[in-house]
Design goal:
139 residues; alpha+beta; four-stranded antiparallel sheet; 7 helices; binds adenosine-3',5'-cyclic-monophosphate
Length: 139
């Protein structure tokens, strides 16, 4: 088994799309092994997205991600990272394949409904960031 990490972003939670998004995740045979409703504060968002610190979209990203509730999830499936990235689609909803979560619920590249880890290494790092209690998964 392998693992990935996801965030249902504030726009999706605010618009009431969380249930539909989670249903899609379940229907695609991901097992939700951790789930929390959280509100990111500026410090936590800046730490989580520190890799993007030099990008011109960074300030908007931080203010968007701290604008409301998020749902963070640790997910289990064979080849989880790649399968999940296929399920959510391209970062820019305008380029996302039809039927993917971002094509259905994303509004723009900045407000793109959902985050998915981009590698096994980052999935582990991101899961441990929000779910330190799941450390045993990686032992
Ligand atoms: P996410 O998967 O959460 O990882 C970083 C986020 O930054 C990404 O989704 C997008 O929402 C945002 N992002 C990435 N590239 C751009 C870009 N070129 N312009 C604006 N936002 C971006």
């Amino acid at each position: 088994m392998s693992y990935t990490f996801s965030i249902i972003k504030p726009d999706s939670v605010r618009d009431g799309f969380s249930d539909q998004i989670i249903a899609r995740i379940n229907n695609n045979k991901f097992k939700v092994i951790g789930i929390k409703l959280i509100t990111l504060n500026k410090t936590t968002a800046e730490e989580f997205y520190s890799v993007h610190k030099t990008k011109d979209f960074y300030d908007n990203l931080i203010s968007f991600m701290t604008s409301g509730h998020c749902i963070v999830m640790a997910l289990e499936k064979t080849n989880a990272v790649e399968n999940f990235r296929q399920l959510i689609g391209d970062t820019d909803p305008a380029n996302a394949e039809l039927g993917t979560i971002r094509s259905l619920f994303g509004k723009s590249i900045e407000n793109n409904a959902i985050h998915g880890a981009d590698s096994d290494q980052n999935a582990k790092k991101e899961i441990l960031f929000f779910f330190p209690e799941l450390a045993n998964l990686f032992k």
